[in-house]
Amino acid sequence: MSPPDTRAGLFPFRSPLLRESRLISFPAGTEMFQFPAFASQTLCIQVRDTGLRQWVSPFGHLRFTVWLPTPRSFSQNKQVILHKLQQLRNEEEDIKAVEQQLRTLQDEWEEIGPVQNEEWEALKTKYWEVVRQIYDKINAHYEAQRQVYEKNIEAKKAMVVQMQELTLQANEANTYKLWDSLTEKVKTLQEEYKKIGPGARKENDLVWRQFRTAIDAFFELKKNKAKEQQAALLERIEAKKKLILEAEQLKDSIGKEATQRIIQLQKDWKNIGNSGKAENQLWAKFRAACDAFFAAKDAENAAADKALVENYELKLAVIEKIKTFEPVDKTEGLAQLRGFSGEFTAIGHVPASKKDQVYKSYKTALDKAYEALKLNQKEREQWDFKAKLDEMLTSPDRVKQVQREEPYQGYRDWETDRK
Question: Rounded to whole angstroms, what are the CA distances from 336 to 327, 343, 361, 362, 390?
């Protein structure tokens, strides 16, 4: 659309968006109001009216019309406005300030009034050309801004998705370490979101509400999980306190059953799990009780080992007696050998590594002593049975040993002789 022609009495409406579509028209003159057109450059005087008329215009129409030329200052003022517009076109300042100045200059342009015909076309063309260039600059700025806003919104939407994924991961979190890691990621996302920049207001508000909702859901879940974990933590603490109490009661106990129970308590401690900040303090008490128990057990074992060594030496002494045995007659010799066997059996256990060796030496010495007595086969079997039976009866686990033995044929004969 070409700029309007003010010679037709039409002026552009004062709106930068509707400048060429809405115009104000000055109506032709009436008897009440006179709106003559602008004068031409020449002075015209109406031909004198020689006829007499009975009717006279109510406002004293003098029957002549005069057109005067437009002032030169109008053209000069519009040139000044045009120059300012050209300067504004090249400005790089804030775009809103450019818009404001453009409206002000357009208002001033409209308020100046008409110019001479031969200057108007050139001024009008230049004016609209520079105005359109400024509007193009403004539109280009807002288009670039719109693209930036779209990128910002897309980036924020991606962060909303990341935040929602972190909330889903939080549903599976069951340790303080994992919760701390997820919380740090959430804080990082919040800082990155702030750095992205704005977007279109409506979309920006919508995305922010989504992001804020995801964050609130995460921290609400964290709060609820913390309550659950705290309750579970208190249960673990109480369970470990009970283990500590039982371990302290067992620390002075001895025996296999006490040892097995302490070992089971240690397994239960591991199965209960971590008890948070109280773990180190609780563990110190539990370990002290266990260490006291095993220290006492070690002392007991050391004493038992010493006793086994002493038993070993005593049995070797009995074996030496059997080796140096010189019987006077058969009856007395058998009685002495039976006494040696009882003494050997009553001594007790020896170290496991020496058990077979010392028993073999004992049997060898005993066999040689029996040979020296010149016993027949039946007598030998009876005395072997008697020696074995005496060994079982003097043993700490004699009941089990007797139950494991098969009935012996000479048992009744031995019972008869004994009576």
Answer: 8, 11, 18, 15, 14
DSSP code, position 7 = G
Residues in the chain, total:
419
Q: Report how far residue 120's alpha carbon sits from residue 5's, in angstroms, rounded to the nearest whole number.
A: 9
From residue 241, alpha-carbon distances to 141, 175, 281, 285 in Å are 71, 22, 11, 9
* Amino acid in position 319: I
Q: Which residues of the chain have pLDDT under 50?
A: 1-53, 56-57, 62, 64, 66-68, 407-415, 418-419
Q: Got the DSSP string for 17-65?
A: SSTTT-EEEPPPP-SS---PPPP-SS---PPP--S--S---TT---S--
Helices (H), 324-419: 330-346, 352-373, 377-393, 398-404, 411-418
Residue 344: how many other CB atoms lie within 10 Å: 24
Please count the other Cβ atoms lying within 10 Å of the Cβ belonging to residue 57: 10
Q: What pLDDT, in 10s, does the model give residues 382-417?
A: 766 776 666 666 665 555 555 555 544 444 444 455
Angle at Cα 103 formed by Cα 100 and Cα 109, nearest 5°? 140
pTM for this one? 0.43
